[in-house]
Amino acid sequence: MAEPGSAIRESKKGGSRFVSLNAAPAPAPAFPPRPQGDLAYASAEEIAAAIRATWPTSSADNRWRRSRGARDLLRHLENFPGESWQQRWEASGFNERGHPVADLQSTRKEKSQIGVGTACLFCLRVIQPSLEAFRSNTFLYYGQRFLTAQNDPLLDKFWAAVQDKPVNPVHHGVALFDVTVALTTQGIALGDLTPSAFLHYAWECRRQGLVLGQRGAGSRFPGHLAWQVLHEMGHFPSHGPSTLKAALLTGRLTVEEMVDRYEIRHTGIRQLLIAYLGRRKPELDYSTLDNLSRHLASHFWSTIEDLAPAQPDLRLDIELYQRWRDRVAVRSDGKGARDFDPILRAVRAFYADLQAWAAAEPEQWAIWVAPCPVSDTDVRGYGIRKRRVKERMDDRTRRRQSLLSTLVEHMENRYSHLHALLEQAAAAAGGATIALEGCIYQRLWSRADERRVRLGGNANVRVRDQISGRSINVTAAEDAAFWEWAIVEVLRHSGARIEEALELTHLSIRQYQRPGGEVIALLVIAPSKSDRERVIPMSAELFGVIAAVFRRHTRDGRTIPLLPRYDPHERRSSAPMPFLFQRRIGTNHEVISDTTVVNMLKRRCSELAERHPAFHATDFTPHDFRRLLATDLVNHGLPIHIGAALLGHLNLQTTRGYVAVFNEDIVRHYQGFLDRRRQARPSDEYRPVTDTEWRGFEEHFDHRKVELGGCARPYGTSCQHEHACLRCPMLNINPKMLPRLDEIETDLLARRARAEQEGWLGEIEGIELTLTFLRQKREESQRLARIAPVNLGMPGLRATDAMR
To answer: 402: part of which helix (H) or strand (E)?
Structure first.
């Protein structure tokens, strides 16, 4: 068996959100459970008699098969060293994974017989197998057999509570199996089963891929229903987590634990970081504090210790600082560059805070004060880099706006198809053929479905696609398709952040009655990132989606269950609330997570890529819908401050960062502005142009022509720079005159050399200024020349004006 805590270290190393600090097997009890007495040293015949006495109600043939199978295994174990049957079992190799006892027999009947006998030995506690050994064998109805053998009132009470749960009876048996296997492999009675011991069982099953229905997957935990029942019946502490998932999810780390994640060797720096983060903690939320600890402890000081293990303090030389910058600019896996602006700003703030605090508390902070290695130059380009990010986000929004309708149509069609298929297939008999929208399906019905119905449950509706041959669980697929459609519709119509959408509850729906009697449905967004509540008037489309979610939860007279929601950023669970985006998974109702939504969008975009090549290089994230809505609102005339209020932005600049302006929107809005301005001006300004005015207009442009190009001063104005054209910002250089600029520069250089010889300082200053403007003009002209400007020519009189 794996050592305690191995699953914990593995989960941390893999970055899993499931971390349980208290998962450990139960200690050996002082009085081990022995339902038929201590049989560890009994003879094979004595044990066979105990087996017959323990399960006397079955037929004589079954009693004989159980005792015969147990004797066959015990006679084989007699060939191995040891005094007890447990010692011989461990010496035989059957306590290791991949060694089932059925290998001792050759026929199917004999294999089944020795398997039943082995299960009886486990139930009577003659042998305590490891979890790997137990799950290497297949035991039918082990939970019921173990329940009969133990004669434990507490275990009987647990089984009665499990049967009272309104879930498919198949899950009842699974819950009993989970508990009995945990008791068997740990050698304890139910009274000794602690939350820690059950967590250990769940972790080991997941780590080894031993979850029922998921053999080898290693991606699920068993025991959800069992944990819930044990908590409700008071066996687990009432103040502890009420679900297995809540017990497994990571809790909040202390400041010391945040720093110690990175194994800082310098004791003084470790204590300094702990004290600094403790000082900053009251003003930061948990996720921000966690990121700050990562920047300072991991990206900064842990990297410094890797580069210079003997570094004594925060006083870094230029060479070490540059090496650190080069290292931190690249991701740890070597894939691409890291956005290190947040790291630089965190380090700079760290040094600045130490200097500020040292003045008030020198005894604690003064010894660590040092010059900040992050210079003004390093952070000066942050604005430029932020604009580059804005440009990339705008481009991302533009590319996705044209694809949004395709994605929405695909989600709607997929849900409507599966919904219709579920209705038709549910009414069809096993083996019947169903034709729907050009697809042919066959209704599947198996012995497992019959068993579910026989036990009083409902079998999932399953079909086989006759074209692809793929089997589809229509019940699960239709449910998933509905929630995928619903979350996308809510995100794109409300502009809510993903965590805000998932936190919507039954209480989020309000109504407002206007003075005229009109009732408007409102969606209340709970405080999230900006820590401020806001209200969104619901459109008809958004209201329709919310109503569909309500109908799905409340069909058959049910109410929306009260559930806690775990926030992975703040690492805490909310109070139980009627969350709208919750669904049944197995035996539990769970609030949909943001990771689930992200993965769902990836799958749908991958499906679309088969028919729409644009989706090969483009996918959607939940935040894309927020940016698309912001762009749509502002570009269609909604004032930006109203858009900021709807989106929950405290700063208009944030909203501007979300809005991607399209070229056609610029033209449309500017043309509308011109039309409104013309309507506001006096009508006599739009009288026909006289010949004198037109000649004056043409002469104005003739007077703009100079040697190097043309003057761009406004119409009707004279030259205000005394024709010092090279120094004038209004001069546009003709690209054909670039060689002439080179000649002028050569002449200016010669004049400057003569002035330097003669000591004409005023002349030198004037020539230097002219050279500066000349070079700027040349660079600008060369850039424009690459764009290939188009000569529009001179404007001429229209025919109607000429006739006048």
So the answer is: helix 382-426
Count Cβ atoms within 10 A of the Cβ of residue 513 and give its class: 0-12 exposed, 13-18 middle, 19 or more buried: exposed
pTM (2 decimals)? 0.68
Mention every residue, 6+ apart, whose C-beta is less than 8 A from residue 172.
162, 163, 165, 225
pLDDT tens per residue, range 618-666: 889 998 998 888 888 877 777 777 777 777 776 666 666 666 655 555 5
Which element (helix H / strand E) includes 589?
strand 588-591
Tell me if residue 720 falls in helix, strand or coil.
coil
Query: Confidence band (pLDDT; 50, 70, 90) for 315?
Result: very high
List Cβ neighbours of 377 (8 Å cut-off, separation of 6 or more).
none
What phi and psi values does residue 709 have, to the nearest 5 degrees? 165, -130
Q: What is the Cα–Cα distance from 8 to 21, expressed in whole angstroms?
A: 7
Amino acid present at 350: F
Strand duo 471-473 + 462-465: pairing: antiparallel
Q: How far apart are alpha carbons 683 and 686 in whole angstroms?
A: 6
Burial profile 602-626: b = 16 or more Cβ within 10 angstroms, e = fewer: eebbeebeeeeeebeebbbbbebbb
Domain ranges of the chain: 6-248, 255-380, 405-426+475-620, 691-786
CA-based nearest residue to 187, from 118, 97, 121, 125 = 125
Which of helix, strand or coil describes residue 439? Answer: strand
Please state, as a whole number, how many other Cβ atoms lie within 10 Å of the Cβ of residue 22: 15
* One-letter identity of residue 52: R
For 41-85, the pLDDT digits (tens) are 999 999 988 998 888 876 766 778 888 889 999 999 999 999 999
Picking from 763, 750, 706, the residue whose alpha carbon sits closest to that of residue 731 is 706
Q: Binning pLDDT at 50, 70 and 90, where does residue 709 land? A: confident
Pick the CATH number of 405-426+475-620 from 1.20.1460, 1.25.10, 1.10.443, 1.10.10: 1.10.443
Are the C-beta atoms of residues 66 and 51 closer than 8 Å to each other? yes
